[in-house]
Specification:
Elements (H helix, E strand, L loop, with lengths): L1 H15 L11 H8 L9 H26 L2 H16 L3 H23 L2 H8 L3 H35 L9 H31 L20
């Protein structure tokens, strides 16, 4: 009976949670399956959520910076229209859906630009400031992806440990959403990391990606 009550509370929390995680929300079945895959937890839910948010914010910012540097004017106009809708709405559900749409548009725009042969020629003509901004944006995007990947096991372990603590059950919805969002970040950043460096290399632009999730983000001036 106790375990049934815990799972019921988990499902209601996921359904009712108001947190906004803009890299995709899980179905109930996927959320439960994913979030309970870890071992013993260390840390606390609030600290984990803060780190997850930091990772997401770094990815969002660096993806947009890279997008502004290499995406076509048409793709940038699409993203701007979505941002106007985000700014105009006060509905949290609609805002979250629009942010997910914008994230997809930004990453798709970066990958589309990377497949354009003209980008290689254009990149060779960039001045040093723009080259550095592009490389540092890519570095930060990769760093955010590494941060996200390193946080998934921690989040899974936290959810598993919280099942035994009814006082913390209200945190599970936010944790489950965060874990799925972190997984979405991993998939999205991987596509960009595989697409962009070859273009930069062809344009004789040196690319250095982070080797650890603990490295410091680059300061970028665009």
């Amino acid at each position: 009976m106790k375990m049934r009550a815990i799972w019921a509370s988990l499902m209601m929390t996921v359904l009712c949670c108001g947190s906004v995680w803009a890299w995709g929300l899980p179905s109930i079945a996927d959320a439960v399956k994913s979030a309970t895959g870890g071992g013993r937890a260390t840390g606390n839910p609030d600290a984990f959520l803060a780190k997850a948010k930091k990772s997401e914010e770094l990815v969002n910012k660096s993806a947009e910076q890279l997008f502004c540097l290499i995406a076509s004017k048409e793709e940038q106009a699409k993203a701007e229209e979505i941002q106007k809708k985000i700014d105009a709405t006060t509905d949290s559900g609609e805002k979250m859906a629009l942010q997910q749409e914008k994230n997809s548009t930004v990453l798709a725009g970066v990958c589309k630009a990377s497949a354009d042969e003209n980008l290689k020629a254009e990149a060779r003509k960039w001045d040093d400031k723009k080259k550095k901004a592009a490389v540092d944006s890519l570095f930060n995007l990769a760093l955010g992806g590494k941060m996200a990947a390193s946080l998934v096991p921690e989040g899974q372990a936290l959810v598993k440990s919280i099942q035994a603590n009814p006082l913390l059950l209200t945190k599970i919805g936010s944790l489950v959403e965060a874990i799925k969002s972190l997984g979405g970040i991993g998939v999205g950043t991987a596509k960009v990391i595989s697409a962009v460096p070859p273009v930069f290399s062809a344009a004789k632009i040196d690319v250095k990606l982070p080797s650890s999730s603990t490295e410091t983000p680059k300061d970028i001036e665009i």
